[in-house]
Specification:
Elements lengths: L13 H7 L9 H11 L12 H7 L4 H15 L3 H28 L10 E6 L2 E6 L8 E5 L7 E13 L1 H4 L5 E2 L18 E2 L4 E13 L5 H10 L7 H30 L4 H15 L3 H19 L9 H4 L5 E5 L10 E7 L2 E4 H4 L20 H11 L4 E5 L2 E8 L2 H12 L4 H7 L2 E8 L4 E7 L10 H5 L5 E7 L1 H5 L2 E6 L2 E4 L2 H16 L3 E10 L15 E10 L6 H10 L3 E5 L4 H10 L13 H5 L3 H7 L4
Parallel strand pairs: 8-20, 16-19
Antiparallel strand pairs: 1-2, 1-3, 3-7, 4-5, 4-6, 4-7, 9-10, 9-19, 11-12, 13-14, 14-15, 15-18, 16-17, 18-19
Helix pairs in contact: 4-5, 4-8, 4-9, 5-10, 8-9, 13-14
Length: about 625
Amino acid sequence: MSHSPSTPWHTQDTQTVITALQSSPQGLESAIAVQRFVEYGPNQLKEQGGKRPLRILWEQFINPMVLLLIGAALISLLLGKYIDSGAVMTIVILNAILGFVQEYRAERAMAALKRLSSPMVRVMRSGILQELPSAQLVPGDIIQVEAGNTIPADARLLESANLRVQEAALTGESQPIEKDPAPLENPTSPIADRHNMLFMGTAVTYGRATAIVTATGMQTELGRIAELIQTVESEPTPLQRRIGQLGRSLALAVLLIVAVTFGVGLLRGEEAVLMFQTAISMAVAAVPEGLPAVVTIVLAFGAQRMLKRKALIRKLPAVETLGSVTVICSDKTGTLTENRMTVTILDVAGHTLDLEEVLSHGRPVLPLSTPTIVPQWDSHALLLTAGALCNDASLQCLPEDCGEIRVLGDPTEGALVIAAQRLGLNKDQLQNHYPRLAEVPFSSERRRMSTLHSLAVQSETLNTPATTLFEQSPYILFVKGGVDSLLEVTSAVWEDGKIQPLNSAWRERIEAANQTLAKQGLRVLGIAFRSFTQMPATPLNEAIEQDLVLVGLVGMMDPPRAEVKQAVQTCLQAGIRPVMITGDQPLTALQIARMLDIVREPEARVVTGQELNNLSPAELQIGRAHV
């Protein structure tokens, strides 16, 4: 059994995939799995093209200038000039040691991709669920994954329950992707759009799933990336080319000096032995023994300075090459941005609030011990209260400092909890006063989540709109989800403490706000509620999500790092053009690029991966000035 790595598994239904991989819902038979392991090998990334320590050391001695110095040292040794010979060889050895240490350290760092593999995985073999090392996986294996697992191989989803996968390491998407087993139509869909596939090295953040392995080891998408990295052909740097040219020129000059000196001496009647020694001495004197040492030491100091700034130089001559850089290509997620979702815009009843502006340009998150006392912001406070309660994420103090907190759970939900916390709305305290009674979990079909809470518990210190606005309705259902999804089940809107019917004007206004925020590169969620005078029957189902009252919209994004804009300005001042490369949505990428001044032209456009793949080398060269 063999399949091309480009087989469009995402376009085929689950039964077709199982049949094509000669598997079954009960998994592979153990004997067949052993045969396939022999055929495909271990499910591991192979380090191809890596240099052994001896090869790295050998390459330090084959530079033309170094070979010239070694030749000079040997000749000096033959002439009995032991001190000169020793001095030259000391320089050669010092140069080799410095170069070897720097390159060997970098070679070790380049093996980081291998650590993305998952050590153990649950596999169905012969109808029995067992836990095996991920290295033993083969195409056709049926695996089970859940929140917290690392995906051990490329696989096609068979079944999933609220599955979300963080694929930032592979695609650049800063937020987890919702997965669905349904087949797709486009066989050339980008990796980021293949929502029915799982990819090696990505992480499950929510839900669970069953999938069938379609590719292992170097045949996976991560393996392709590793192969591209490891098979890149290295080219000499400008410094190496110039030193090599200097070495060859000196070698020719030395040979000419030897020949001329020796020939002229013989013509004058001098002894051949004496003239040979004289010619060789002149040749040794013409070689700049200190040049390689000076260059190596200067580059080593430069590499060490860059290392202190968290920049690892793989080869010493690359330090000089940076001085010739004209374009810098950078990843977006986690490099130019913080790789965490942050609520930036609250939009309620026609009023848009810039949360960062209100919080005095980046006020730190309030400690978890801060009492929950809410400013009288009415709808905005209700919006964040609902967002924090209709939520499975939580905040946790770091062990070393409770003034610093981290998010446990989905990053998007975590962004809502942090936004509430920054306004003094502590989720734990909110839950104590408004306990969750039941819920309708998120599903990719509905694209929303609902939680039912009791408002019976009151507190003098908890000053939220829900405390006073729903005194006659002790139960409330909070719902969050996609704006289009919420509008399907919404019949009213919340405006300044009053419920207004959802007429055509309100609907147009909400849809326009949603589109405006989306064009700004924001991920938009809607938040609504429904109050009850009596406790609804449990367990809840999606039928309860009717006649909702829309509170407002929340816009969030992965914000740029604070220090990046200055770095971009420094590049531009140095004549270097920064280019952002990302697998994120084009609108989001363009907005981040504008915020960082990478893009300044009002009519700038984003070149997608598919468009780039369709360009010929000549078209790419022509389009460089326009991309």
